[in-house]
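Batch job 17 of 40 flagged for manual review because the log was empty.
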Amino acid sequence: MTPGLREASLIEWVTPDLAAAQPFVAALNASGFQVSAVTAPTGKASALILAHGLASPRETLHTDAVAALKSVAPHFEAHGGTLILLQDTGGLFQPHDHRAWRGGLSGLARTAAREFPAATVRLIDIDTAGFGADLAASHLAEELLTGGTAPTAGLSPAGRYVPQDTGLTLPRNQPGHLGPKDVILVTGGARGVTADCVIELARRTGARFALLGRSEITPWPEGLPQTTDEKALRGALAKAAKETGEKVTPAALNQRARALLSGAEIRHTLDAIAHAGGEAHYIPTDVSDPAALGAALGDIRTRLGEITGLVHGAGVLADKLIREKTPEQIARVFGPKITGLEALISQLDTSQLKTVVFFSSVAARYGNAGQADYAMANEILNRMAWWLKSANPTAAITSINWGPWDGGMVDDGLRAKFAELGVSLIPKAAGANAFADAVLAGAACPVELVAGAEIAHV
């Protein structure tokens, strides 16, 4: 029995489609539960079943689910309760169709478990298309009665499935899988840990890389001392402005310093790829803008040839607890990762690619307080990898759920926090090698990888 359901005087089934809820509500009530279908939580129930993953439009289901949960988050934080989230990605978390786009709620459930430690939180992936509504409702009732506390479970005509991590040693590189004639499209790849990975792949393959990012390459001012220290750079810019009589605000100084450091990092990446034996071109592009992306892809094909691989590493953070999360923050996080991926898939023939790699996060696999949107977006990447693999089984297609790197978004403050928590950071060289091993494993590469102190597949 899922804890808290039998004791609940009222369980609310939250859905935008009350008619579609009826078979489920009837089956649960027939099993002895007290369930009522509502379009939004009333605040009167001690247990909630969020069914947005079965009924909401794909474009809004993740925002809708967060909004519903946000309204009751203070109660769950303070008092606990029982929270069940439902989605349909085929009942195995391995969708072979468009349902992959609906697969982010498992990330929300895992985040909710972190933010509501006194609550029981479960995510159930149920194949409503395979079962039909009545049989799906019957299997769901049985799962809630007998499934215990398994945080995630899948229900399909093939049976019950509980995802688990398994230790893995990546297979040896497949010789010739990628080479100098290959053209790899990389989003978010000119800076940070994605750049480290691409440099290692260039060293091993000599391939050509087209790097897309939102930043322009700002030229370094003549006479300004070279530095990678932002504080020192702000001081040098302030001194230069004073000498020329320019009045500049602290905010403008910060913006100018960051633009210069960004440009310097991009130039360093391009040089490092060339030094490693590859060829690299950088094109400032917002991947979530289909028109801008189309123009960039046309330029790449003209200059480098047909694209044979994709590394999708773009991403941003907008951390807030569920009770504070806004639709605007969700849209900001989903922009580069999900809207960008939609644009990429609409303009690339992914069935012809030799490799597709998504940069996901352990936040999707295990949850992280304050990162509901980031966890959902990355969990969608994990599900999308399964869909793409089903259509292109001979390719190296994987979604890597990275733990924190010793670099990238991890500054000295975060590094100290991780050390206090006992969380090991991924050394840059080890992470880059794991990435290249995965790409060059070819078809043998697992579709989902969890990369931290250990490498595992799911």
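Reviewer: the log was empty due to a logging misconfiguration, but the result itself is present. The chain has a mean pLDDT of 94. Unflagging and moving on to job 18.
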